[in-house]
Amino acid sequence: MQASEYHPRFVQPRLIEALRDTPVALIHGPRQCGKTTLARAVGAQHGYAYISFDDDVQRAAAQTDPVGFVADLPDKVILDEVQRVPLLFTTLKAAVDHDRRPGRFILTGSANVLLLPKLADSLAGRMEILRLHPLAQAELAAVPTDLLAALFSASFPPRAHVRSPTRPHIQPHARLGKRLAERVAAGGFPAALARGTSRRRTAWYRDYVETLVQRDVRDLARIAALDALPRLMAMAAGQTARLLNVTDLAAPFQLSRPTIREYVSLLQRIFLLEELPPWHSNRLSRLVKTPKLHLGDTGLACALLGVDAQGLWDDRRLFGQLLETFVYQELRRQASWAGERSAFFHFRDKDGVEVDIVVEQGQKLVGIEVKAASTVTAADFKGLRKLQDAAGARLIAGVVLYDGEAVLPFGPGLHALPISVLWKEV
């Protein structure tokens, strides 16, 4: 990817739709994921002015006199990095209550407003929140695929794609091999992808973490051990796709478990870490209730761990962990532009039988297991069968994503899929 390349974001139609009937649209996601580019692309088409609160003068004006600042704004305006002026949310609420015309404000924020309840509540009913992630593989390929819609479809899988004794030669997908590790190691941040080499991408990611700690974390909280956060991020990168263990994270630091827990929550607020909650069922009581930890982007994780695509390919254990996070984040990115709302979980019983990702849409469930190999056996469906027992008829599909060439059946509702369905049509 060259610096001049622009990849259209598949969430853009949702933003345009929101501006037609909602006074405020907020795009939130990690810094440098493309929020400003998206907002300005839409704004240029619809006559929006632009103000950034990374500008010291604009930020000071808004902080000093928020009422006067909002009163002087143009009719339609983009307010970039609005989390840097939290007082503004209350003032925007008053302005919207006075004039509820749709599409007045496009806000962007690099802190998760859903984890900042006072800010979210101040504009409840007046604001639509859109999550923007780093670039998905489907966006990089310019293929608006929606794997979740396919999995939840009554017609899944398309019969023409399933290899069987009567159709043994179907190979719609090619095995990726080391190219899969290259995708995982590159990640999805546009500025990192614009760098020409792995070494230059790693340098960008490391500078990125330092900048976030020095600027955004300071805006959100006053913490004593600011220098511990990059090291904590590296520890978390090594634990990605594992059950969250605060004791292990705290071990290298002379800090208490509650303090480390607070730091983890802070890193979640700026989208660097995510917790994947466990899925529960009354039909099975022996389920683990601990969340899993995932890094927000695998390119960032690889940079923090000091590993490139070759190193990842050589370390199969680490590759398996990061591939699971890669798939989880790809599904989350696709869900951000999909029509149906999805909730994400993991499944694990006390014997260690697990399913990496469980997706819920209404009363329906899909289970997804990730395998960093080119072959699949019936044993790889052990967790999915346990999930079938727990979920009953709610589970409509269970799939193993693998580095293979064909869609393979493994029993009623169970299939192996090439991992490239994440950026190709199923």
Automatic annotation (TrEMBL):
Protein's recorded name? AAA family ATPase
Give the matching PANTHER family. CONSERVED PROTEIN, DUF4143 DOMAIN-CONTAINING PROTEIN
UniProt domain DUF4143: residue ranges: 214-372
Query: Start and end of every AAA domain?
Result: 23-140
Query: What InterPro entries has UniProt attached to this entry?
Result: AAA_14, DUF4143, P-loop_NTPase, Restrct_endonuc-II-like
Q: Which domain of life is it from?
A: Bacteria
